[in-house]
Write a structure and sequence with these properties.
Layout: E1 3-4, E2 40-41, H1 61-86, E3 98-107, E4 114-123, H2 179-184, E5 190-191, E6 208-209
Antiparallel strand pairs: 1-2, 3-4, 5-6
């Protein structure tokens, strides 16, 4: 059973099973229904065609046109299958596409209105299968890359410089009795490690004697 679905801004139906009477029209003061609004819903809440002749119900011509289109398509498919079975298996003939046109006239809600629906469906013919011979194999010979040989780097002889031999004998131990002797020898001042440095010459023991 279909129930009437009021658009936004319209008053709700007085009862769940309420249906607009034949010839009923909404109040002009009500806002227009949104485009494509479903005025009728089935028990599952899905769009329904609605009772014939009621406001918002779709005319039955759409249903009849769907039936006719399905029947025509079925007949064309059967004809195509029968034609393909009778064809020779050695060569598949070329069959052009077939266009079937069906005209259906059905009454529409209203006293004298009728509607004409033309259904066209193009059914392709059988498909011919063409098998091409395999292409000949192509042999490609690739040239070997040239080998590049790098000459080894020449060996470089390491040149070592011989240290000169020491020809002078190390100085003998030098001893100075006092700073006067250091100054007389022209060696003042003496630092730690210098020949002749001694602690008795470094009074303040700062590493520098005979300052």
């Amino acid at each position: 059973m279909s129930t009437f679905n009021s658009p936004p801004g319209w008053p709700a139906p007085p009862a769940p099973d309420w249906q607009p009477p034949p010839g009923w029209q909404p109040d002009p003061a009500w806002p227009p229904a949104p485009p494509g609004w479903s005025f009728w819903l089935n028990a599952r809440g899905l769009r329904s065609r609605g009772p014939n002749g009621r406001y918002g119900a779709e005319p039955p011509v759409k249903l009849v046109a769907g039936w006719v289109a399905g029947g025509v398509a079925f007949l064309v498919i059967l004809a195509a299958i029968g034609g393909s079975n009778g064809a020779s298996s050695s060569a598949a003939p070329t069959v052009p596409r077939t266009t079937v046109t069906a005209t259906v006239t059905a009454p529409v809600a209203g006293p004298t209105a009728t509607a004409t629906v033309t259904v066209q469906q193009t059914v392709p013919g059988p498909t011919a299968t063409v098998t091409l011979p395999p292409l000949p194999a192509t042999t490609v010979t690739a040239k070997a890359p040239k080998a590049t040989v790098s000459a080894p780097a020449p060996l470089v002889r390491s040149t070592q410089t011989a240290k000169p031999k020491r020809t002078t004998a190390p100085p003998a131990d030098v001893y100075y009795a006092n700073c006067s002797a250091v100054r007389a020898a022209g060696k003042a001042p003496l630092y730690t490690g210098d020949p002749g440095y001694a602690s008795h010459l470094d009074r303040d023991h700062d590493g520098v004697a005979c300052e």
